[in-house]
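Support reply, case 0932

Customer input (verbatim):
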Amino acid sequence: MKALFEPQSGLLTVQYQPDETTELAENPPRFTWIPAQLDHDRYVLQISSQADFEAADTITVEGIDYNFYTPDRPLAPGTYWWRYALLEPSAAGDVRSAWSRARAFTVPAGLPETPLPSRATRYASTPLAHPRLWLPAERLPAFRAEVERDRAHCGWADFYEKSVLPWTERPLIAEPAPYPEHKRVPKLWRQMYMDCQELLYAIRHLSVAGVVLQDERLLALAKQWLLHAAAWDTEGPTARDYNDEAAFRVAGALAWGYDWLHGELSKDERTLVRRQLLRRTEQVAFHVIERSKIHHVPYDSHAVRSLSSVLVPCCIALYEEEPRAREWLDYALEYFSGLYSPWGGRDGGWAEGPIYWTTGMAYVIDAINLIQAFAGIELFRRPFFHRTGDFPLYCFPPGTVRASFCDMSNLGEPPILKTAFNIRQFAGLTDNGWYQWYYEQIKRTDVDPESKFYNYGWWDFHFDEMVYRYAYPQVEAVAPVDVDPIHWFRDIGWVAIHDRMESPDDHVMLLTKASRYGSISHSHGDQGAFVLHAYGEPLAMHSGHYLAFNTSMHTEWRRHTRSKNSILIDGKGQYAGLNKALNMEAYGIVETAERRAGCRYVRMDATAAYKEEVPYLQRYIRELYYFDSAYVVVVDQVDLEQAGKIDWLLHTLGPLRLDGQRALYEGSKAKLDVRFVYSSTGAMTLSSHQGFPGVKPEELAGLDLHWHLQARTEAASRHRIAALLVPMRAAESRYVSYFMDDQDHGVHLYFTDNGVTRHVDVPKAY
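Our regenerated output:
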């Protein structure tokens, strides 16, 4: 029998893993392959210590519903082979197809053991009483007794005063109206989901408080809110396909109300709420599993997030009351155990950037805590969750502004409180004092979080505080005085360089990226770009404003290379359009990130990122040298098949003073001296301008207009550019001297600061 036909994997799809090249991070391995038919496939998987699968230890797993699988027990260290086959239904039962080709992998000793209980056993000891969400019924009496003894227990008094009592006086929120002519309007879209978030707060908080306190008035109010929400049109403005953010929140509200008020509802009321909850859950499950198929192409940000925000709480609430709820819950559990996270890997990175890390983590933290309370499955044991707190620590540290990448709803403001709440979760999980320090720094400075739409419309800190304190210990904060001087997130291609992170006024941060994720989802056309933040101020910054997804500010400015500290080639940047395949093909590669004597060095290849827009590009390499914790040298090498001009770009909050080959930006706390010390085509032409070309004027009302430096070369097919960047305090005066030695094979650049000389070799532009 011929081997099973295996569809080719691509940049957008899951991969065939593990194989000979896979460095496993946990045991057992996670097995993934490309779906054979994309529609209701079922599979059989074999794992064996012999390539002929005749060994006594061969494992055969039948009836796998999707193209990913986590075994229910770890494997002994050693070399193994695996293969899969398609199960095809027939009148006589399932018939196995030919096997796929066998792939080898090695399990090293000492890996974290993170099996997933099988479907047959994973809910064997799960109690079915309500409530199930957060506080299982069997733990409720003890918690109630603690609250009666001490109202401050786990932050209950604060939760009750600030997140329960206000809803005893608020009128019911009207069901959101459709958009005018059913055309999405960003302001109305946001107001709609914020209304639905308030609906969730009212139902969840009144229900929890009413049950814990056995307060008839609160229970009656909670029930009134729940039945009001259950009357909303499931196919109307809060349907998943109309406004998914609104839909997620209404589904969550119904789940919490149905679960916690289960004993307060009549049979008919339970039937009504269950029917509405099931339909809303079904809408999300259909999109995730059948339409988006995130088990095949996993890069659908909202679909992946809805596993946490919708499928987990809703299916736990409906478990054993609606048969499909178990199917969807199994899908979510197995996804978290196997394919999660599509946005990062063993280093804990998140390719969509720190704000979407915040959102994604907020919901997955909630979901995994709910799963552990409900079924006792400890998904937090996976290595990703033990490392992912590093991502905000290094790429979104306290005291920084406009100093990271990707879509950022808080653009122009410091890191947000929910990021801090998330990282505290991982402090509690790993006993990491740096993470706790991060939380305490943000908690001290973000004093009015509820006033910001990106907080109030997404989470309630008083409820979150109570949930955390109930389950996790207080960790002692440790200032990050010895963080990695250069930290490379290999899983996403980001590199962070830091000095004095523990002291925001002394902190210098250089962040760069060249990511395999290209410009997919909330990433931008910024491979090879960098941001520089020093002494409490952004110097080479993330430009633009966050208004809403798909505004002209988003589609014409922020996503594009011209808004980055990067280069344009004949006025063109990297692909940042809406074609997902092309987004992933516009990738970059960090070739190395390392410490050298007196230097931290990064080399990146961003060639592929420009190929769609600049097909005649042969090669683009960017090197960053951070010398003696004092200055940065940026070296660009561009090779073209035809003559072209390079625009070297840098963005600042305020105006730049230009003088020959020099540009000076002076902020309130710090300043940046930029000197173009070498260009293979001769002196560069410097200019600066203010504004956001291409952005609709009506979107700019009341917004600060940023400044942009452009240094242009002459036309040539080969370019070598070296720029010196010297950050300093506003009152400081520093001059880094330099000279050039032009040799046949290349140019030697020498830089001297405080009597110490460093050098950079720039290859010749042949």
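We compared this against your earlier run and they match. Two observations from our side: The longest helix spans residues 186-213. The two ends are 56 Å apart (CA to CA). Please reopen the case if you see a mismatch on your end.
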